[in-house]
Design brief:
Structural class: alpha+beta
Distance between the termini: 33 Å
Number of strands: 6
Length: about 110
């Protein structure tokens, strides 16, 4: 996860070659998906960066990437507004997981 300062949609839709997109090539090759694109219906609400300059547009430059195993344990993922609690020009991305799939049952663990 992180602030990649590069845009997935430039890589995915425009196929613009750039060294910044090398990590996206790795993710695509290893079936690693971006969480909000799976769960968010409204593409216009997927932005995570809110520029201070009103002449600049909102962008999505923050991501949570996950593999198929974690995807199967996920309930939801979406950008959340955190202003005014946290002063930032970004929105926070949440990933909601099914607890039963994440917490290991103590009875199934072996003692060494």
């Amino acid at each position: 996860m992180g602030d990649f300062n590069t845009k997935w949609n430039e890589y995915e839709f425009l196929d613009a070659p750039h060294w910044r997109h090398d990590i996206f090539n790795y993710f695509k090759k290893h079936f690693i998906k971006e969480s909000t694109s799976v769960f968010c219906d409204d593409i216009s609400d997927m932005y995570t960066y809110i520029p201070n300059n009103p002449n600049h547009s909102h962008n999505k430059i923050d991501y949570i990437w996950y593999n198929i195993d974690l995807m199967l344990s996920t309930m939801d993922s979406k950008p959340q507004d955190v202003q005014p609690v946290i002063k930032t020009d970004h929105r926070m991305i949440t990933l909601d997981l099914f607890m039963d799939d994440v917490i290991i049952n103590k009875n199934n663990t072996q003692k060494c």
